[in-house]
Design a protein that fits this description.
heterodimer; A: about 230 residues; alpha/beta; five-stranded parallel beta sheet; four-stranded antiparallel beta sheet; globular; B: about 425 residues; alpha+beta; 2 domains; seven-stranded mixed beta sheet; elongated
Amino acid sequence: MSSNTCIEISNVEFSWNNQLQPLLSIESLILKKAEKLFIHGPSGCGKTTLLNLISGVLKPSRGEIEVLGNNLFSEKQKLRDQFRVDHMGIIFQQFNLIPYLNVLENITLPCLFSTRRREMLSIQKRNTFDETSRLLDALGLEDKDIIQKNVTQLSTGQQQRVAAARALIGSPEIIIADEPTSALDQDAKQGFLELLFEEANRTNSALLFVSHDLTLTKLFDRSVSLNDYRIQ
Amino acid sequence: MNTKIFLLALKSLRFRKLTVSLSIFSLAISVVLLLGVDIIRVQAKEKFANTISGTDLIVGSRSGSAQLLLYSVFHLGNATNNVSWDSYNKIIKHPRVNWSIPISLGDSHKGYRVVGTTSDIFKYYRYGKRTKLSFLSGEGFTEIFDVVLGAEVAKTLNYRLDDKIILAHGMGNVSFAEHKNLPFTITGILKPTGTPIDRSVLISLKGLEAVHIGWEQGVPSQQSIQADNLKQDDSRLQTKSITAFLLGLKNKHDIFSIQRGINNYKSEPLLAILPGIALMELWKVIGAIEKVMLIIAALVVVTGLLGMLAIILTNLNERRREIAVLRSVGASPKTIFSLMVIESEILVILGILLGLIILYASLTLINPFLFNTYGLNIELNSPTKFQWLILLTIIIGGLIAAIFPAISAYRKTLQDGLTIRT
C-alpha cells in the first residue's frame, strides 16, 4: 500500500448468511488520498453494502480492506467504530439528522465521540462553535439563527447541508456519501456538490461518492461502475 | 462516555415529551398506589394493635377469645352469657389486681352501642401508646342519668353538652322499645381516639340498671318509673351481672397465673384473654385482605412497566434511522444498548420520584381531614425498609423491561449497519 492510498480493497466478497451467490465481489479498488471517486451502479448492485464494508460495519466474507494503512477487520468491533468516527465522515441519502438534537449538536456529534476530530479542530485553532458556523456559511446556510434551530424545522436541502457539515467537521481523511443528492432537485444538486468539493479540497479529504445518477460523473476525478465488479 | 449517553438519552426523552410524560405519570400512579397501600396496611395494623393498651386481661363468660375480644373491645356481636356481679367482685378484690373496668352491653342509641361502665374507664382505659381518654368538652358522668359520648357519636348526631338523649333497648337504628321515660343528659364528649370508643355511648352501671327496671321480661311493664324517685332511692339499682370486664394488674409477672386462676374459676365458666395476643390472632384473619391489596397494587406496577415497554418498542422502529446515524458517528452497538437502557431507567426513576411527591403531598393534605374525622393519624415517615425494597424492585423491574427493547435495538443495529434493512 503506497503512502498516498486511502482505501485499498483486494479480493473482497460479501454474501449474506452463507448464500452461495455473493452480493458483492471486488477484485481490486483503490481510493487515493484527496481523490474524488464516483461509484455508480443501478440500485441493488451492492453500493450500500460496499459502504458498510468500508466503514467497518459489515465484515467481508472473504478478502481484505485496508483503510489508511490499517487492516480494518483485524480489530475488534469497538475499535472499528472508533476508527470510523476518527477518520470518516458519512453522509446518507436522507434522514441524516438526529431529531432531538439541534443543528449545532448534530454537527458536533462526531466531536462527542472522537478525540481525534476534536484535536483536529484545536490544531486549526478553532472551537466547535466557530467551526460549525464557518461550515454552515461555507455550505450556503448563512442564516445566523440556523445554528440553534431544531433540525425538524429545516428543509431537505438544508438538512443535507447540515449532514455535510457534520461529515466535514474535524477534517476526517475520508468523506463517504451515499446518494446524498437524490432528495435534491437538479440545481440544488450541483450547488451542494460544489460546496462539498470545496470543503473537501480545503482539508485534503478523499471523497467516495456513491450514486446511480450518471449526470454527476463529470465532476469527479474518476468514476467506477460497480457492475464491472459483479460476478455475472 | 457515560455522561455523553446520559445527555443524549435526556434529549431524546425531552423530544418525545408527550409519550414520555404519560409513561412517567402512569408509573407514578402505580408507585403511589403500591406505597399507599403499604403505608395504610402498616398503619392499619399498628392502629388495630393499638385499639386497646395497658389492659392486662379481658374477662368474659367462656366462649372463643376472638368473640370475647370482638364484643368487649370492638363492640361487635354479642356475648353468649354474662358474668355475675358476685364473680366480678371476687376477682377484682384479688390483692394483685390494680384496677378494673366493667363493661355492660345490650342497649343502643341510634345505632351506637351503649356501654354501661364506671367512671374508672376515664381513669384507667388506655389505647394507642398508653393514651388516656380525654374530653373535647365536659367531663365524666357523676349522676345516674349522665351520659358521655364518643367523638363520632357527638359529631354525626350533632349533639352538644346538656342535650338530652333517649336510649333504646337492644341494637338497631329503629328500635320501638325505647327507654322514653328516662332521658339521659350529655355531660361529656370525648376527643377522637380512632378506636371503637368513638362510636360508644358511655353511661354508669346504675343508669343502665335504672332504665331496665320493669324490663325483666324484655318489654316494659305497665308501671312507669320516675327518675326523681330512683335518684333518692338507688337500692333498686344494684347491678346483677355485666358482659365483660377489663383488668389491670399490679405486676405484669402475674398475668399468666391470674389468667389461669380465672379460667379455672369454679362457680362460673369464665375466660380471660391477653388483649395483645387476641388482637394478633384476629389480625391474621383480617390480614389476608392486606395481602390481596398488595398483590393488586403490585400488578398495577407491572402494568405500568408493560405500558412503558410498549411505548419504547413502538418507538424503536422509528428510531432505526437515528441509530444508523449514531453508528456512523462512532456509536458502538453497546452504546446503542446503553442508550436504550438509560432512557428507560430515567423514565422509571422520574416515575418513582413523581410518585413519591404525589404520595407524600396527598398524605399531607388529607391527614388533617382523616385525623379530625376518623381520629386516624397517618404518620409521614420516610419509607420503611420494605418500601425501599419495593422501590428497588420497581427500578430493577424497569431495568428488565428496558433490556428487551435494548436487545432488539442492539440486534437491529448489527443487522442494519449504516442503512436500514426492512
